Amino acid sequence: MKKAIWITWENQIRNKSMASLMDADLYIFAHKGNRLKRYVHCSYDTIRTIYFDNPAVVFAQNPSIFLNYLLILIRPIFKFKLVSDAHFGGVIDFIGSSVFQRALDRCNKSVDAVIVTNKAHADHIHSIGGNVFVCEDPLPNLECYNNHVEEIEKMVLFICSFDIDEPYDLALDAASSLIEDGFMLYVTGNYKKVNIKPGNYPHVRFLGFVPEHEFYEKLFQCSIVLDLTNHENCLVCGAYEAMSAVKPLVTSDRKCLKEYFKSGTVFTRHEKACLVEAVKTAYANKETLKEEIRNWKSLIIKEHKLKGEAIRSYLGLT
Description:
Number of strands: 12
Order of helices and strands: EHEHEHEHEHEEHEEHEHEHEHH
CATH architecture of the largest domain: 3-Layer(aba) Sandwich
Structural class: alpha/beta
Distance between the termini: 7 Å
Number of helices: 11
Radius of gyration: 20 Å
CATH topology of the largest domain: Rossmann fold
Number of domains: 2
CATH class of the largest domain: Alpha Beta
């Protein structure tokens, strides 16, 4: 069987689940230090791995666009097929830079195939002449983190990275109303990078950036998962994690989210009153929503398997 490897310069859960789906050996290269130092170390590790593994196919996460261009550069030497797994920032430059968008488009035209998570991004790749497959995140297997502890009633886990697309101010504001009905908002992520002072939010519990096992422990303890984005065409990671853990989800009223997460989910506009009502609705109907998720999961796992087989067949890996 021809060998495939998956290379990423970021430790993100999609890389693990997608590498498994593609039956590819996963390599995560992450180094501390400034950007130049990281790029040098990660580039060396990447080239060295390809030299010794001699893969027929290399999958690479985008971002990093630097990683993808490095692989495009060395592809003629090592003669592998290159597939870019393009997350939101690997297809459309959300800052709006025309120069960076041209760099993304050139990259996505140059690789042998691009994997995206939604039809809108697939349409864009088609429009620039690229080969594209749609494959949403395979649901992560989180059962090893499930200690079967009892849920904490009315615990809302807000999965947040405090990035520019996340309306975290809205969620923190809504928490002041939710606590009146007994709900407590637990917030993940590095709140310090946006200068939030926890003392200003006595009705919120800031967890900060926690180790993976602690994060999933909280996920299994909560009653409701909350994950929000201002972006269109962005399937938020917390939604997949909520589905995997069978937790009712409250997320943004966005077309791509509504088209994919059709079960176990309550959608909300980015208004305080709407968000508060969405959380209350999800909690009141949590058992029904959980059953919807269980049924949806069984179908989506089969669907992902078929999508994985189609990509592997196209690349000559079967």
